[in-house]
Write a structure and sequence with these properties.
Strand order of the largest sheet: 2-3-4-7-14-10-11-13
Order of helices and strands: EEEEEEEEEEEEEEEEEEEEEEEE
Structural class: mainly beta
Low-confidence stretches: 297-319
Helix content: under 10%
Number of helices: 0
Largest sheet: 8 strands, antiparallel
Radius of gyration: 30 Å
Shape: elongated
């Protein structure tokens, strides 16, 4: 705004997400036909809710070795139908309900499955979908999906998802995102048995309400696979395609593009295989997702023009503290129990102005303060905490 004409700035307003602020300030313009006029201000306040960011955090780690004995088959109904002379067994897609009955948190995998095999099949065990422990028919412990058809075509499509409610064993209050580094990665250990005619294994990420499938296809059938440096990347093999998992079919013509995963709500995989005859299986031994986790901090502070930190907002949840104070409401003296004598106690009114300051004392006289709400800032060797008190 080189000419400082406010009229030029009064158009084009829109909602804006301020997620990377580098400067804050204000603009004032005034005009008077005669005599002078002035602006005087003594303080500029900027409210802030800091966050802690940890890269390379493991948000999901499923390990078959942690599965208890005897988990058995799917906990949801498997619907049987026929189509074009094929038997179809479907566990309808659901991204919140677990596929398996288990007390193991990371084993409460959501998703769905569809298996097809010819009606003329002579197989004794035509379809299996189960989470099972070691020393059962498959070993070691794993998630097993199996379809068998001795003399005809068969196929299966599997979608396994770990929803956000399972991230970090159910921890809340975090935002999970990926970046384009080795600290953000997806990995799994598998064994795809049988000589499949066609096979696809892709990672899946859900962001908001949209599902994305990786362009990278791990169809070698066994061992450990890993994908990293994939966030917002236009490099072939690192891109993603939106798809609809509810159909339980592998997308036929996916369109791949760079995707910025900044609010991840689920992670998982999609697997498809087919074989002209005999059985084929997909066994998942482990799944792991490492991401960047952002956690909202506990308090909000702002600074005046001279850099003095001032507590201004009591609405944010405070960090757990060992400090106790009483009585509240208070009329005269407030006692502070911190396990030690606080080095500094400050009291602020709701305009951010310090109205009381006491050093090396665990009792403070508030009798001269007006009735109202104040913020109490207590500093000890262990911590600095802020509390809201009421003065009567």
């Amino acid at each position: 705004a080189n000419d400082f004409q406010l009229s030029d700035m009064l158009t084009g307003y829109a909602a804006l997400e301020l997620n990377d602020v580098t400067e804050v300030g204000f603009w004032i313009t005034s005009r008077r036909d005669s005599w002078g006029h002035a602006l005087t201000f003594t303080k500029f306040l900027a409210y802030d809710k800091p966050t802690s960011v940890v890269a390379g955090t493991t948000v999901i780690e499923f390990k078959g070795t942690d599965v208890a004995q005897g988990m058995g088959g799917t906990s949801r109904q498997e619907v049987q139908s026929t189509e074009n002379n094929m038997n179809i067994r479907t566990v309808a897609y659901n991204d919140t309900l677990p596929l398996f009955n288990t007390s193991y948190t990371q084993g409460r995998i959501a998703g769905g499955a569809k298996r097809k095999y010819a009606i003329s099949s002579t197989a004794s065990n035509a379809s299996v979908l189960q989470l099972q422990a070691a020393n059962e028919s498959w070993s070691p412990a794993s998630v097993v999906a199996y379809v068998d058809n001795a003399d005809n075509y068969s196929e299966q499509t599997l979608i396994y998802l770990w929803p956000k409610k399972l991230f970090m064993n159910g921890a809340t209050g975090q935002t999970v995102r990926f970046d384009n580094s080795d600290q953000s990665k997806l990995s799994l250990t598998l064994d795809a048995g049988g000589d499949q005619n066609s096979r696809h294994l892709r990672f899946v990420i859900k962001q908001g309400n949209t599902y994305y499938m990786s362009e990278a296809d791990f169809n070698n059938g066994t061992g450990v696979v890993e994908l990293s440096q994939f966030n917002n990347s236009s490099v072939e093999g690192k891109r993603w395609a939106a798809f609809d998992p509810s159909t339980l079919t592998f997308p036929s013509s996916p369109v791949y593009q760079a995707v910025d995963f900044n609010n991840v709500t689920s992670v998982g995989l999609i697997y498809f295989s087919s074989r002209p005859s005999w059985g084929h299986s997909f066994t998942l031994y482990s799944f792991k997702a490492d991401a960047i986790v952002t956690t909202a901090a506990a308090r909000s502070v702002s600074e005046d023009l001279f850099g003095e930190s001032m507590i201004l907002d009591a609405s944010f949840e405070q960090l757990p503290s060992e400090i106790r104070y009483y009585p509240n409401p208070v009329t005269n003296y407030l006692t502070i129990d911190a396990g030690e004598v606080p080095s500094l106690v400050e009291v602020y009114n709701m305009n951010g102005m310090m109205v009381k300051r006491v050093e090396n004392a665990n009792q403070i006289d508030l009798s001269t303060l007006s009735t109202g709400i104040y913020q109490l800032k207590v500093t000890t060797e262990k911590e600095t905490s802020v509390f809201t008190i009421q003065k009567r």
